[in-house]
Amino acid sequence: MEEPExxxxxxxxxxxxxxSTNHSTAHALTTAMxxxxxxxxxxxxxxxxxxxxxxxxxxxxxxxxYAPGYFPVTVHVENLRAFD
Length: 84
Description:
Layout: H1 25-53, H2 56-66
């Protein structure tokens, strides 16, 4: 019984070289902008759908309760009476 050949036709003995195709910078920039701005627009779309399909009062109560936790703001005031 013959033993099967382990390396037929020299496969696996040469180094594999992977070359990228030339992509334009404008194409890469456009793709990056779509991903970046698309996520912002998706968030706005989801919020608007939430407001449309739920009662408006409940939607705004939910946003007023949970949104400030995602956007913490610290205000330092030197003279509080200056706002009177």
